[in-house]
Amino acid sequence: MFRIITKTSRLFPLKGIPSAVSASLKASSAKYPIQSIPFSCIVPQQSYFRSFSSSYTSLNSQAMEQPSTSDQIVLFSEYEPIPFSSYSSVNPNTLKAIKSEFKFDCATKVQNAIISQIPSDQDFLIKAKTGTGKTIGFLISAIETLLKNKKSGSYDKDSVGILIVSPTRELAKQIANEASKLSTFHKFGVHELVGGESIRNQTRSLSNRPKDIVVGTPGRLLDLWDSFPEFGRAASKTQILVFDEADMLLDLGFQKEINDIVSRCPRDRQNFLVSATFSSKVRQTARKALEGKSFKELDCVDPNESSVVKKIKQSYILANWDAHYHLISKVVASHIAEIKEKTGAGAKILIFLPTTKSVQVYSSVLSSMLSKSGTPLNKPDKSSRFRNHRAQYKNSVKIFSIHGKKSQDVRTRTSDNFRKFDISNNNTGILITTDVSARGVDYPGTSLVLQVGVPKDPQQYTHRVGRTGRAGTYGEGITILSEFELPFIRSLSLEQGVELKESEVFNSSMVSDLVEAIELTKKEADTESGETKDSTTDQSLEAKNELIPFVKKHSFGFERYKNEASVEEIEDMFISCIGYYQSLEGILRYKVNDLISQVSRSMLPFGIDKIPHLPLQLRLSLGIGRPSGNSKSFSRNNYSRNNSSTRYKDDSRFNDHRHGSENHSSSQPRFNGYRHGSENHSSSQPRFNRYGSKNNRESSDNYFQKNRSSGNRDRRNGNSYSR
C-alpha cells in the first residue's frame, strides 16, 4: 500500500498523480527508479519501507505544527523476514554478535527499516512501538557510525562515542546489557550511569575503560558531567546522541535535563530520537536537538497493522477493594492451571499496583497467601567438593516485588531473577511492581498482566499490557476495577481503540460468590474462636458455594500476615492510593466521597473501619475541608468541605503519594516516637504519639487495648491485634 503524507498530514491514495510523486521523489532521493505507468516504486527486497528526507528549517510556532517543509512519502509493503547475514553494510563482528549472543537469524520490520539506512550520517527521528526490536536497530546503526569515525584520522579517543539517554534505570540497564552483547567482538567499553548506585564505582569504570558507549538516566549523567571532569570533557565531545523513549522522558518531566544535555554536546554529532509517539512535545524536542539540521523521519508504525496490544486477550473485573486479595489469588490460580494445561509448564505473571505503599502491602499479603516451595525434585549433594547445595523443585510459586523505595541494586537483582526464572516443572514466578516495570523492560515468557486499579492514562495501560504477548507468544491482560474507575474504559476505547469487556470467567456473579465465601469463612472462624454468638456456618450455603474451600485454604496465609502487619502501613497504603487517584480526577470524574469510601475498603480486611487523617495538601487538592464534627478521625462517608477545629498531625510523613517518591524511608516510624522494636520502649505505653498535643489527644485507652497474645497495640475496630 502507498500513502503520501503532506504538510497538513492528510492521507491521499496515489492514483493518477505520477508527476507530483516523481517530483517529490526526485527532490528527496534519486536512489530509487520510478515507473510512471502504472505508478509504482521499485523498493529493494530488504526495505520494509523507506522514509524520505524531511527537515526542520524553522523554529517558530508554525514549525511546531508543521514538522517538515517538504512532502514526505512513507511506503508500506508486505514484509518478508530478512536474514541479518544479508546486510553487507553491517560490520562482520556485529553480525557475529547478533548470531552468537542474541541467537537472532532475521531482522524485525523495525530493525530492517533502520538497518537498511546504513551507511548514513543523517539524524533520525524514529517512531516505533515497544517490543519491536527498535533498541537493537538503533544500536546497530549507531555502532556502524562509531566504527566509521574510529577509522578516520580525526577521531578523538577521549570522547564519548555513543551517549544514550534513558528515562528509567531499568530501561537503561536493559539497553546497556544489549549494547554490551552487540559490541562483544568490538571490545568496546560500555558504561551504565544510573542513580541509586555507587558513583565511585561508576567513575572508576569511566577512568579505566574506553567510553565508547555510555547509557544513563538524565539526572546521573548531569551529576557526573559536573562532578567528574574526565567524564565531562569526554561527554562534551559526544559523537552520537540517542534519546530513547523520548515521549516518556518528557512525560516524566525531564525537559530541562534534555535541553541541558543537548546544549552541552557538540553540534556536529549524529542524533537519534526514538519514541512510541510523535506528540507536539516530542517534535519540539526534536527541533531543539536537531538544531535545524536535515533528518530522516522513520515512521515504523504501519497504520493498517493491528496493534500488538489489541491481539492480547483483555478484560476487566469489577470488584470492591476488600475482595482484592482472595480475588487476585483466584485469578492467579486459574491462570496457572490454564497455562499448565496449554504448555505443561508454569507461568510468569506481572501484577501492577499504583503506589509503592500498595506494592509493599500486596506483595507481603500475596507472598503469605500464594508462595509455596513446591515438591523437591532432588536433594542437595553434600558429599562431594563440587556439590549442588540447592535442591530443585516443581509446582512452586515465588513472589518478587519492585518499587521505587528499593535500592537500585536490589531492583536490578530482582528484575534479573524474575527475567531468568525457570518456569519448567510447573514453577510460577509473580512480579508485583509499580510502573517502573511498565515500559521498555522485557520479561520474556510473561503470560498474564494483572492491573490492580487503573493506570495514570490509557497510553500507560497499553505499555503495561504490552509486557505480555511479545514476539507472537500468548498473553492475557486483566484489570481489576472499582465502580469509580469505570469511566476509564471509555477513555481507553477513545484514545487507544481498545474495547475492554467484563471477564466472562470472573463476572459479577462469580465475584459475588467469592465475597459470600469470604464472609462465610470469616463468620465460621469467628464462631470457632468464640468472638460471635452466631451458630455455625450455614451448611446449605457452603454446599452451594464451591469457592469456600479455596477461600479457607488461602485465609490462613492472609491471617498470618494480618497478625504481623501494623495499622500504620495499611493506613499509609490507603493514603498513598488516595493521592494517586487525586491526579486522575480529569479522567475518572469521580465524586470525592465515592473515591474515599471505595478505596478505604482496602483497610477492612485488616479490621480498620475508621478512615485516617489525610494530609493537608491532599485534602486541599481534593477540595475537602477538615473532618466534620468533633471526631478525631474520619468515619466512612463523613467528609465535609467545612473546616473544623480538629488539630492535625504533621503531614511530612505522607510524602509518598506517588510511587516515585524518594522522600520517605519506609524503615522509619511515621511519628515522633520510638523506633519499631526499640529496647527502650515500654510495652505499657503507646508506641507512637498519634494525636499530637496532650490536649488534643483522646485517652490512649480508647485506641490502644492490650492484645491477649501480644503486647503490640493497634487500633482495629477498637481492638488490639498483634503485629
From TrEMBL:
CDD domains: SF2_C_DEAD (cd18787). Residues 625-723 are annotated as: Disordered. Its EC number is 3.6.4.13. PROSITE patterns: HELICASE_ATP_BIND_1 (PS51192), HELICASE_CTER (PS51194). The keyword Nucleotide-binding applies. It catalyses: ATP + H2O = ADP + phosphate + H(+). Keywords: ATP-binding, Helicase, Hydrolase, Nucleotide-binding, RNA-binding. RNA helicase. This is ATP-dependent RNA helicase. It comes from Smittium megazygosporum.
